[in-house]
Amino acid sequence: MMTGKQDFLDRLAQFLVLAVGLFSFGNAAFMIIWPMEWYVAIPTVITTGPPNQHFIRDIGIAFAVCGVILTYASFNIHARWLAAFAGALFLTFHGILHIYEVSAGICSPDVFIADAPGVLGPVILVYIALGILFVRQRIAPAGLPKRALLNMMNQQSPHESEYMQEIADAPGHAFEKMMHFAPAALHRHEAPSVLFHAARLGATLAEDCGPCAITAANGAMADGVARSKVNLMLRGKKGLPADEAMAFEFGQAIATQSADAVELGDKIEANYSRGVRFELAMTAAIVRSYPAMKRGLGLTKSCSLFDLEV
Asked: Treating both helix axes as pointing N-terminal to C-terminal, what angle do 8-33 and 121-135 enclose, rounded to 10 degrees?
């Protein structure tokens, strides 16, 4: 779930990737602008043979490309994790080359140990950052292997498997395009999670799709909304506190194209902020696309035919 503001671990992952990007930039500038000075500044480089300014600058350009990609990735690490991986590829193979050379006896263990912090350290930091995101499932789905992603979806929401498999089987990279679109429905930065998911469930229930409602309910719990609260939402706004009931109604009004959406949105904006109104409106509008797609494919199951409880 990529909802809510970044926490400490998110910021740590972002910082690690940015730090490696800036390190790559610094090393690149040194190699490109002062190649001979770089050659003598790194003691172990001298052991590899005589200097060649052209080749030093060539490698410096490779480091500069890594720096550009990693810095770009760091500003939105959850969605750009694949860019971070791509930016680390040269650093990875550079590290593998050093490991090969020491294992083959081309360079001594002392040289390898001296080089390791600058050669292996940065790329390890990138993979630690990506590991933090993967373990916590804080990444955009686009970029994951299709089969792995389908298996994850089948485990988390088995009733979605038929629908997602049909999209996966469609020609023209339809599944990949869908995975780029999906995170937009989960954009939550400012809105309280309970209001956000009240609006989301209100819109989903208005579309009369039971499996969709259960998927949205599971998403709410994954985002920290209490199970008891989620089950109240699944039964409608009755029993919810006033603000949560208003958010639920707002989602319903958007889904049913009711004129009440304007008045409810104004109240939410007055009580919270324009940003909260925006996030509730965005999730309510976008989440409707899933039941609409199922309905078009003949795969919708009415809420009345489904046990709406988690």
From this structure: 150
The domain containing residue 126 runs over which residues? Answer: 8-135
Alpha-carbon distances, residue 50 vs 45, 92, 110 (angstroms)? 9, 25, 20
How many residues are recorded in the chain? 310
Q: What is the CATH number of the domain that holds 199?
A: 1.20.1290.10
pTM: 0.90
Report the C-alpha gap between 308 and 103 in whole angstroms: 60
- The answer to whether position 171 is within a domain reads no
In this structure, the number of other CB atoms found within 10 A of the CB of residue 113 comes to 11
Helices (H), strands (E): how many in the chain? 17, 0
Q: What is the mean pLDDT of residues 63-80?
A: 97
Domain identity same for 127 and 199: no
Q: Hey, what are 168's tokens?
A: 């996966």
**CA 160 – CA 215 distance, rounded (Å):** 8
User: What does the pLDDT read at residue 180?
Assistant: 93
Per residue in 5-42, pLDDT tens? 889 999 999 999 999 999 999 999 999 999 999 999 99
| Residue 229 included in any domain | yes
